[in-house]
Amino acid sequence: xxxxxxxxxxxxAMLELEQKCPTAxxxxxxxxxxxxxxxxxxxxxxxxxxxxxxVEVGTASEGRETPELLAFLVAHDxxxxxxxxxxxxxxxxxxKGLGARLVGxxxxxxxxxxxxxxxxxxxxxxxxxxxxxxxSGFEETGRRSGYYLNPPEDAILYHRRLR
Length: 163
Ligand SMILES: CC(C)(COP(=O)(O)OP(=O)(O)OC[C@H]1O[C@@H](n2cnc3c(N)ncnc32)[C@H](O)[C@@H]1OP(=O)(O)O)[C@@H](O)C(=O)NCCC(=O)NCCS
Prior knowledge:
7-stranded mixed sheet, 7 strands
């Protein structure tokens, strides 16, 4: 298993994973393309990480392997602060620490870049994500009524100070 920066080649697998997870943020293919193209050219304000593992395909004697996407994280560099925009772990890979590891990578990256704050919002009912964020040191700071659609729900706002 390894964590690496995403490339545009990861977009189909990211979309497939995101679509399996109703509570994830849902982006169009174009939004991912714009985020990752600018990242590849070194001009990005986005930071996108994927977690992949190699899985065997064919018979064991063939020894062929293909990468499988297990998780990803998308964050936005907004100058003095960052926004965690999305984090998704495949249902089969949950509760193994991948989500916490990705959040930890973002916090280290933002701290090393000299930033002071990370913000995010999450559906009120998304207990898995809220517990993950709280365990990662985020504090609840507010609420946006009716922020989400399909289904309608309030957003809970979180903040993590880095220094
Ligand atoms: C939220 C999500 C990213 C968590 O990923 P994960 O890899 O399972 O999280 P971790 O294994 O790192 O969990 C870290 C801690 O968070 C808490 N946690 C995670 N999932 C939980 C759940 N379903 N119920 C209760 N607590 C949970 C636990 O305290 C866990 O520690 P523990 O396993 O030692 O008890 C994952 O559930 C997911 O992809 N959900 C769908 C997409 C989504 O809603 N993303 C958030 C958008 S804002």
